[in-house]
Structure formats: structure tokens, C-alpha cells
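User: Sequence in, structure out. Go.
Assistant: Echoing your sequence, followed by the C-alpha cells.
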Amino acid sequence: MDRKALKEHQLTLLKKQVHWAEEKVPLYQKTFRQAGVTGIAINSLKDLQHYPFLTSEDLRQADVFDRVALPLSGIIRYDSLDTQTTGVSWMYTRGDIAHNLDMLTRAMVAGGMHNASIVGILGDLSNSRMLDVLQASEIIGATVIIMGSDYNRWVRIVQKMQMDRLIGASQSIMQFIIQLQGNGLCISSTALRSIFCMNESSIQNPMQRHIQERMQAKVFNLYAPTDLGIVGMLYQCSEHIGQHIQEDYFYPEIIAFNSDAPVADSNQMGELVITSLQAEAMPLIRYRTGQAVSLLKDSCVCGRTHLRILTPFRII
């Protein structure tokens, strides 16, 4: 989609999303009222700047039922990620899950996955995001191996199956490398061609270079914070210059540090703030990610028209 058409599409979605949030979600009814704004005051994308920010602390302090837009009869999945220190609970409609799968299939295809791939998924399926990874891989037509959390089982699977793709949390990827090394396996001789690294605390894995050198495989970062309850909002294409934003599902803003104002220069670094555009159960309006990024507006060689973000450091 060209940029003009995409902006028009975003505005249509944004009007519906903000109105839906105010009408259905107690948390936004309260914060909008306190800020003196309404859900029908969106006439341009810039009008979003008048709405209050949402922080991770706001999500943790709010009761899950103050954040949901629908009764439980409209919910088909509940994922309790909350702990004493990190994460929040999430609810999903059928439409939410379909959107998540759409974003993930795009991200994994951009990373080289196809219907002849053999994909290993590190971890169990008690996490909703891992369920989405499983289903998206199956939608693509790949052969999926659920590797679980048993380290010894990982070694047996690697010896038996010629996996060419691996997906897991960044900590699990590092543990996978350690486990193979501890069992005397030549890591670089595996069939792995790409590794999808789900990063919870940052957009880019600082161990990316190490993983690539040890595994002799390309690393594709997937931003997967528990606060968002999704994977794939940001993803890397084969060019590995920044990460594409799924702009038909999320509208990005870059906010200046120590300020609530948007950055004046697109090349200036600031905090990434995102607003969901098609969320049904739990909309996110102006969520502050805490991630330092800049916006890359140049066209990508891969042909995708979604904008890209750059982190303070770049790893090829």
C-alpha cells in the first residue's frame, strides 16, 4: 500500500479505535475524562497528541476488567502473564488472535520461513504468544516441532531433525546454544538458517552478534514484551536495516525524551509510543514503550512500505 493510502486507512481505524476505547473500556473512560478529551475528537492523525499517555505502571495497577472492552462471553482466550514484578494479563477475541497471526506470518515470511521449513519452537505453550507462533508457523505450512523446556530433549531433537528455523525467547536461545555446546555438538554445523528471537525487555537483542557467529544463522528480532501481549508488532526483513512497524495494526509516535512533545526531526532519537488500531478486547492508546528509537522514512529495498524504526545500536 502506498503511503497516502496507508495514512487514510490509519485515520479511519484510529477514529474507530479511540471511540471504541472510550465507549467500552473503564480505564480510558477515566483517563479521557481527566484529560478533558473525548473519543470522537479525532479528525487527523495529529489529533492523537491531545490524548493522555498510558504507561506500563498504569497497566499493572489497573484491574484486568477495567482494561477489557467486552464481557467474557466475547472473549475466547485469557493469558495471565502477571507476576510480582513484570507483565500483565491479557484477553483476546477471535479477531485479536487473527490479527496477531497475520502480523506473525508476515514477520516470519520476511525472515525466510516457507512451507518447506522445519521450525523448532523453544518453550511450552502455556504462553499465549507461543500459541500464536505455533499457529502462524502452521498457517505458512511449515513443519513445526514443539521443543518444550527440557534441555536434554532439545539435544535429542537437534540430532534427529534437520531444523532450519528456530523460534524462542532470547534467554531460551542462549540456553539452547549453551546446551548444545555442553553436549559437544558442533553448533555451526546444524541446518539452522534463521533464528527468530523474541525479545521481552528490548527491541533488539544485544547478544545478536554472538548468536549469529556461534550458530552461523541470521537472527531476526521480534519485539515481544509481556505488557503488549503480542509478538510481531516490529519485525526485521532480509535487509536488516531497522525494523518494520505493522502500521495497519499500530500507529507509532516518537516522543522527545523528558517531554510529552513529538520529536521535531524524524532522525532524532526519542521514545517509541504506540497506539493499537484494530484491537478488540484490550485497546492500547498512546502506550509508552520506554524504548529509545528513531524513525526511518526512506523506502526499504525489500519493497515493504511500512516505516522502520532504528535502535541506538545496529547489528548486521
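User: And one key feature?
Assistant: The first helix runs from residue 3 to 24.
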